[in-house]
């Protein structure tokens, strides 16, 4: 800390972090791990529950990935950190209030929206984003009441070849028994138990060498109890020149796994996952009731530049559900500079453009890329800039105080980390009674009834 720094143990640097997902908690972790600038951190989330996409985005059958919450708990239990859940920026607190009472603000709200296909029929009943479907089966309060009747669905088209596309396809292909040991929301497990799904089509507009999924997630499709895997040999062909040019080991292993799928013996099981490459959806077709009945796709060829161009040859697939998984997109926060095209907060390396004392981290900073751990370095890079500004005296002076802010917060139904621990224990106990890791509470009103006494 330089001699000019105004922050001391009696008057620490006060930082608000907006968002309690990985990038938000990693930002807090970086702030309290350093010892040069005494710091206090308040982490806000519009939901009562922390952890963001770890709770509501990670596939429910990937419990080992969710074990990162143990490290997050350590940060949230630190005396210098407060979790303030059920507080929404723009509804309960304004940007101006944050800038009045905190020396710095880090926006780490992720990317909660999705990109559209831009084809006819996209708004038919039964055409939704994979983002919504993931939120539904993970028990997000915004999606828990959605009526997704899978009993009348036999065919599903999943548009996209990233890990989210694999997640939703795998959940649809698994049996209720396979999912029973996951932390999938109870309403979703009940609906999947009565699912009529027989065919799941995972579709990418380019070839298998351009797919974005990881090998571990791809291999899981060869281990499903009740689903075969099918491919079309001509769609997974890779020329010798193209294969020789591949330097990414993940791509090489993916090609090996896909070719191995082609050699699997067909089993007498009720479901089939079809991996389709070099196809682009051109129209979603509806029935007389305005519900999805089919999807029309055009077959593609790869161009010399690695793109895809249509061949003029079309095919219709009978599906009653279309899930688009072509990318997440950030949404603007009230008053915060935003790049609509990129779907990110306008920033330079993490400093919000034109916003002295404002910073950003995670997907809302750089776009939706990387895995959970990627956000740790991203957050640390942003925090390093913040600390440079704090040590050099570059942060603008704030007129507010912690006492004045706490008086305002006392008027709100704030949900603390101690409250969350009560809810967490309740969910685990309820799940344990049924032989499951947890039984998620999915409605906001019910969440708020579980509090520290």
Describe the SSE topology:
Blueprint: E1 13-18, H1 22-33, E2 39-44, H2 53-56, H3 63-66, H4 69-76, E3 81-84, H5 95-101, E4 104-107, E5 113-114, E6 127-129, H6 130-137, E7 155-159, H7 163-173, H8 176-179, H9 186-193, E8 199-203, H10 215-219, E9 227-231, H11 240-244, H12 249-261, E10 271-276, E11 279-286, E12 292-302, E13 308-317, E14 321-324, E15 328-329, E16 338-339, E17 344-345, E18 347-348, E19 351-352, E20 358-360, H13 363-366, H14 374-392, H15 402-409, H16 417-433, H17 444-447
Description of the structure:
The chain has 453 residues and is of the alpha/beta class. The protein has 2 domains: 13-112 and 330-415, Rossmann fold, CATH 3.40.50; 116-326, FAD/NAD(P)-binding domain (3-Layer(bba) Sandwich), CATH 3.50.50.60. Helix content is 31%, strand content 20%. The protein is built from 17 helices and 20 strands. The chain has helices at 22-33, 53-56, 63-66, 69-76, 95-101, 130-137, 163-173, 176-179, 186-193, 215-219, 240-244, 249-261, 363-366, 374-392, 402-409, 417-433, 444-447, and strands at 13-18, 39-44, 81-84, 104-107, 113-114, 127-129, 155-159, 199-203, 227-231, 271-276, 279-286, 292-302, 308-317, 321-324, 328-329, 338-339, 344-345, 347-348, 351-352, 358-360. The strands form 6 sheets. A 6-stranded parallel beta sheet has the order 6-14-7-8-10-9. A 5-stranded parallel beta sheet has the order 3-2-1-4-20, with helices on both faces. A 3-stranded antiparallel beta sheet has the order 11-12-13, with no helix packed on it. Helix 6 packs across helix 7. The longest helix is centred in the last third of the chain and has 19 residues, at 374-392. It is globular and about 70 Å long. The model has no long low-confidence stretch (mean pLDDT 95). Keywords: FAD, Flavoprotein, NADP, Oxidoreductase. Residues 14-180 form the FAD/NAD(P)-binding domain.
